[in-house]
């Protein structure tokens, strides 16, 4: 009898953990993370200014909510093992910052590492998971990114599961973002563990790095869904290493991939173009679509690709990607785009007349002739993105 009760309690607890897990990231998380722009030079002032800018720039209204401090906020542990904040960078401590961020209606995230030390050599979480989770809950943390440096022989699944359980026990709902760079194929096991998992090594602010990451997502669509997302890494939009067209392509592809949208630029000093890209409501709606499907690459020929993302209510988003160095003239047959789903044809099921078809970057109805044909020029490293929404 006692045994049964214990089993029932365990089932209820794990169901509680699962229900909480699912609810926290029904659509891909959106926010900002300090690493891509500021690296270890992050500090209290930077984070507060970014929080202000997230509100004043319209990013909060566009759906961004998490402000995440990455590596380098921690400096040591005290005699009781409590994590010690780097007071030169964060003189008022972390709770002060969390309160400030919350006062703006935003949510607060922080970084740790599953190993003995973080990637920048600061104290890691190993052996302190439950203690740290309690501290994070006390500070008001809403999102935890857990890295994978200095883990030697640790097992990834059990290390991350341990942190998941520690967070659950701490009693505050906290999104868990796994950052083990895809090395242990987290998409195969992390669904019940975290809300998102990095699929690759670190992004760099260049076209080659960004497009290489896109290639690595090609076989992963089936693993993403509400509550559990593939994470191709944080955005480099606005950091200067790519042209505006390339930044638009980067953002479009992340939205097609149902990727978490964590801006990685200096929000306080961004250009109008960067702000326009990051807050584009049409593209964000594709990313945040409640069906939660990641796009598949349906066609690839000589530097030209067609990506398709199913949307709710028999809708879809289609991205025509010119990844070559030359302009491409593309003859589009919208009938084909509507009926092709990558893995099979719905030849007779759908008809163009039943759909609103929008060119998402132009924000206009897509142009085509009576038979649904159109010719467009796509500049190098650029995209055309369309949505098909049922009338
Ligand atoms: C790793 C992660 C990055 C960043 C740094 C911080 O490289 O993949 O995203 O968090 O560590 O040191």
Model description:
This protein is of the alpha/beta class and 391 residues long. It folds into two domains: 16-287, TIM Barrel, CATH 3.20.20.70; 296-390, Sandwich (Immunoglobulin-like), CATH 2.60.40.1180. Helices cover 32% and strands 23% of the residues. The protein is built from twelve helices and 18 strands. The chain has helices spanning 2-24, 35-38, 44-56, 59-62, 93-103, 129-139, 156-170, 207-216, 244-256, 272-278, 281-287, 334-339; strands at residues 30-33, 66-68, 74-77, 83-85, 107-113, 143-147, 175-178, 196-198, 229-231, 261-263, 296-301, 304-311, 315-322, 328-333, 355-359, 364-365, 373-378, 382-390. The strands form four sheets. It has an eight-stranded parallel β-sheet with strand order 9-8-7-6-5-2-1-10. A six-stranded antiparallel β-sheet has the order 11-12-13-18-15-16, with helices on one face. Strands 3-4 form a two-stranded antiparallel sheet. Strand 8, helix 8 and strand 9 (229-231) form a beta-alpha-beta unit. The longest helix has 23 residues, at 2-24. The radius of gyration is 22 Å and the shape is globular. The termini are far apart. 44% of the residues are buried. The model has no long low-confidence stretch (mean pLDDT 94). The structure holds alpha-D-galactopyranose.
């Amino acid at each position: 009898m006692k045994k049964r009760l214990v089993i029932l309690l365990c089932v209820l607890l794990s169901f509680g953990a699962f229900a909480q897990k699912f609810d926290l990231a029904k659509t891909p998380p959106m926010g900002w993370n300090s690493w891509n722009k500021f690296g270890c030079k992050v500090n209290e002032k930077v984070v507060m200014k970014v929080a202000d800018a997230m509100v004043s720039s319209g990013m909060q209204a566009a759906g961004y909510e998490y402000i995440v401090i990455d590596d380098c906020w921690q400096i040591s542990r005290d005699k009781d093992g409590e994590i010690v904040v780097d007071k030169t960078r964060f003189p008022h401590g972390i709770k002060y910052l969390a309160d400030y961020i919350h006062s703006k209606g935003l949510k607060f995230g922080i970084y740790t590492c599953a190993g003995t030390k973080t990637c920048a050599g600061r104290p890691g979480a190993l052996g302190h998971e439950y203690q740290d989770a309690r501290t994070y809950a006390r500070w008001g943390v809403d999102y935890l990114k857990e890295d994978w440096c200095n883990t030697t022989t640790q097992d990834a699944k059990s290390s991350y599961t341990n942190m998941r359980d520690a967070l659950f026990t701490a009693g505050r709902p906290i999104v868990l973002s796994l950052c083990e760079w895809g090395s242990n194929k987290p998409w195969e096991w992390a669904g019940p563990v975290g809300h998102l998992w990095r699929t690759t090594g670190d992004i760099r602010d260049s076209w080659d790095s960004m497009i290489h990451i896109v290639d690595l997502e090609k076989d992963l669509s089936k693993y993403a869904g509400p509550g559990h997302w593939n994470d191709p890494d944080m955005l480099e939009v606005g950091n200067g290493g790519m042209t505006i067209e390339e930044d638009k392509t980067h953002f479009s592809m992340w939205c097609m991939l149902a990727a978490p949208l964590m801006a990685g630029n200096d929000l306080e000093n961004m250009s109008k173009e960067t702000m326009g890209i990051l807050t584009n409501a049409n593209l964000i709606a594709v990313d945040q679509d409640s069906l939660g499907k990641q796009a598949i690459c349906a066609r690839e020929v000589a530097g030209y690709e067609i990506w398709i993302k199913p949307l709710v209510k028999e809708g879809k988003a289609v991205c025509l990607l010119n990844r070559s160095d030359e302009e491409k003239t593309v003859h589009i047959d919208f009938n084909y785009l509507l009926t092709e789903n990558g893995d099979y044809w719905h030849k007779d099921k759908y008809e163009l007349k039943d759909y609103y078809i929008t060119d998402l970057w132009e924000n206009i109805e897509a142009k085509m002739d009576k038979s649904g044909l159109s010719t467009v020029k796509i500049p190098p490293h650029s995209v055309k993105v369309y949505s098909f929404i049922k009338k």
